[in-house]
């Protein structure tokens, strides 16, 4: 690799700084293109954001009539953009344009701008409506009515203490069985009267005690059965707990599989050189003179709108930002990897040669020089967490 240090330069064209025009790609197309570039399904996005697939489809198709109020849609777009690692402020800007007004600018911080580029006015986050939805008022009214009805039923079922005592006493009187009176004749004693042993009260007490002692023995005999039931119940509960843990482990493994990104080869060719004169009107003379032999000199001019760029030159850090309309970017290096969104609005030159690039989705991954593309895989850049970006090569190494 050439030891010359790679550098990047930002240059301004003659276009006025304040004449930005809206981006041609809508918020729905923007989100869908970025999602497809990362080969993620709507089902995966739904699982991470807790937003239904139907709502996500409506956002991507720009069907705002099928969505709730704008305040809710703002929350959906924020969550969606964070999940796939897009610039939240840029997404909210596109959402406002889709609603056809700029009453509420959304993001608190402007997207990262290039060196030397004038900062854009920072938008202010829109506050959701404070009005309480009518369905919540209806639910609250029903809940209060149920509480009142429940209190009335309890009040009617209570009986007076005096009436309850009288009924109890009457029941007791009916259940009491009176012993019938029997005439007892006195026994006349004589010499012939046989002698009989009177029952010993002490013996009767001991017999009564023995009878009373029999009940605890019966209770003790039933205790082992209760212990067996408790043990069986515990075994069943332990089995349920174990099954639940297994299901949770399977769910975790399933989620990890879904998060795994499938890497694929880069289709060729990535670009072709063109001699159309209309392209070369966007290549300034100072850029032509700044070409360094032996390096990949890539010049990008955002002619018809904004384009978002993620790129890595040689071993330099990954850079990610929005190249606004009328701005230009010069990248140099031995090997340069670039991902562009809304690529059709830009004019791209390699070593002062105009490149013709086609993309139906509006996004494009490029490798310079083109013959080195076989050493890399799509997507060129992966966003494992919001605000974090790594190359596909780094991702592939982490799996090993």
Automatic annotation (TrEMBL):
Ranges of biased composition (kind: Basic and acidic residues): 185-195, 220-258
Region (Disordered): 1-21, 178-258
InterPro entries given in the database record: Bact_Cytoskel_RodZ, Lambda_DNA-bd_dom_sf
Domain of life: Bacteria
GO MF terms held by the record: DNA binding
Acidic residues: compositionally biased ranges: 197-219
Protein name: Membrane protein
Organism: Halobacteriovorax marinus (strain ATCC BAA-682 / DSM 15412 / SJ) (Bacteriovorax marinus)
Lineage, uppermost ranks: Bacteria, Pseudomonadati, Bdellovibrionota, Bacteriovoracia, Bacteriovoracales
């Amino acid at each position: 690799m050439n030891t010359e240090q790679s550098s990047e330069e930002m240059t301004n064209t003659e276009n006025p700084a304040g004449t930005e025009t809206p981006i041609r790609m809508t918020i729905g197309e923007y989100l869908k293109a970025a999602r497809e570039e990362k080969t993620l399904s709507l089902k995966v996005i739904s699982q991470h954001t807790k937003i239904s697939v139907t709502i996500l489809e409506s956002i991507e198709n720009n069907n705002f009539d099928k969505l709730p109020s704008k305040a809710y849609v703002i929350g959906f777009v924020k969550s969606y953009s964070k999940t796939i690692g897009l610039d939240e402020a840029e997404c909210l800007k596109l959402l406002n344009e889709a609603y056809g007004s700029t009453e509420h600018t959304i993001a608190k911080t402007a997207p990262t701008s290039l060196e030397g580029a004038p900062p854009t006015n920072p938008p202010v986050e829109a506050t959701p409506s404070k009005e309480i939805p009518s369905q919540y008022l209806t639910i609250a009214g029903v809940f209060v009515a149920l509480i009142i009805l429940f209190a009335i039923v309890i009040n009617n079922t209570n009986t007076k203490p005096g009436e309850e005592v009288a009924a109890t006493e009457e029941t007791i009187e009916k259940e009491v069985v009176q012993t019938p009176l029997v005439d007892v004749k006195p026994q006349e004693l004589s010499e012939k009267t046989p002698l009989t042993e009177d029952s010993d009260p002490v013996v009767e007490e001991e017999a009564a005690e023995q009878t009373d002692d029999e009940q605890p023995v019966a209770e003790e005999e039933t205790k082992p059965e209760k212990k067996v039931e408790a043990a069986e119940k515990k075994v069943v509960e332990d089995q349920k707990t174990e099954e639940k843990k297994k299901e949770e482990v399977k769910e975790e493994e399933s989620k990890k599989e879904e998060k795994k990104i499938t890497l694929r080869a880069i289709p060729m060719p990535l670009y072709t050189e063109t001699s159309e004169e209309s392209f070369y009107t966007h290549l300034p003379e100072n850029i032509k003179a700044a070409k360094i032999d032996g390096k990949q000199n890539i010049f990008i001019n955002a002619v018809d709108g904004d384009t978002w760029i993620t790129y890595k030159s040689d071993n330099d850090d990954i850079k990610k930002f929005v190249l606004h309309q009328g701005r230009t970017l010069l990248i140099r290096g031995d090997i340069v990897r670039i991902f562009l969104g809304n690529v059709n609005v830009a004019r791209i030159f390699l070593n002062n040669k105009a490149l013709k690039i086609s993309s139906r989705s509006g996004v494009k991954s490029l490798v310079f020089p083109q013959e080195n593309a076989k050493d890399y895989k799509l997507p060129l850049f992966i966003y494992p967490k919001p605000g974090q970006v790594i190359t596909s090569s780094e991702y592939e190494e982490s799996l090993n």
